[in-house]
Design goal:
Helix content: 25-40%
Strand content: 15-25%
CATH superfamily of the largest domain: Response regulator
Number of domains: 2
Oligomer: single chain
Radius of gyration: 21 Å
CATH topology of the largest domain: Rossmann fold
CATH class of the largest domain: Alpha Beta
Distance between the termini: 27 Å
Order of helices and strands: EEHEHEHEEHEHEHEHEHEHHEH
Shape: globular
CATH architecture of the largest domain: 3-Layer(aba) Sandwich
Number of strands: 12
Largest sheet: 5 strands, parallel
Length: 330
Amino acid sequence: MFGYTLAAVLLATGMARAADEIKIGEINSYSGLPAFTLPYRNGWQMALDEINAKGGVLGKKLVVVSKDDGGKPADAITAANELVSSEGVVMLTGTFFSHIGLAVADYAKQKKVLFLAAEPLTDAVTWSKGNKYTFRLRPSNYMQAAMLAEQAAKLPAKKWATIAPNYEYGQSAVAVFKELLSAKRPDVEWVSEQWPPQGKIDAGAVVQAVAATKPDAIFNVTFGPDLVKLVREGNTRGLFKDRTVVSLLTGEPEYLDPLKEEAPEGWIVTGYPWYDIKSADHDTFLKAYQAKYNDYPRLGGKGVMVDFVYLDGAKYLPSDDVVKKLRPQD
């Protein structure tokens, strides 16, 4: 993700296991957002194949047991419980939507099981609602908003509007961007906030409402099909003409590619320019991904291409001992 490989620590709990394998439990919204989660699955499947081809982990075959949460926190908790209680997984990983990540993080705290959150961006996962059993792979809302706020502060724009999906991720992203930009630019004014429901945006109404406030710039947090509808409607109605847009995630190919010739130009975005990252590690990943799938990677695929880090002299340890290794400062 952004050219680096993310790391997870894999060790077993004290529960009985099949002698020849170690299981990881993976949960994600495959049916809810396939454009992102299917490349993500490609990434972990490639990592899994490579690890097992080299002898597995601690001399044992690594197995991923995957479940679809359907985009629902309750289903994610049911899946987590089945994975831990019935499948005997040694850790949980995955989740996409922030509110689902928070639900699984709370489950991990209650059950004292390691949880590596793959995609949720809300800061609460590791901050206000974090716990010692939960770790995150991706840069959080704060990290990405800070990058964007730094660039936004250089713009002459004073009047800002925001558009974000009305759930944990969108709410968290808008709050931190407003805080950071206002600190850098006390003269900015927030003239409009639009909160369309995730996956159900009425783009025409949103564009009309934003345009009515005549902002100098827009902070956008929508993604996926909602982003496509917003860009299409905004282009048609001239919302983006002579107006700066700062946009979270829009530079990720999962969200940029569906726009095709309608893709906006000149927006300030976070993303994954897979074609322009120059590093030996990324070159290796890119070649392997293209060879295996005959396609270029998306951020989801890169983000979960994990290295498994072995603790020196480690054998099977309970989760609390793993946490001590991961959090030596605690």
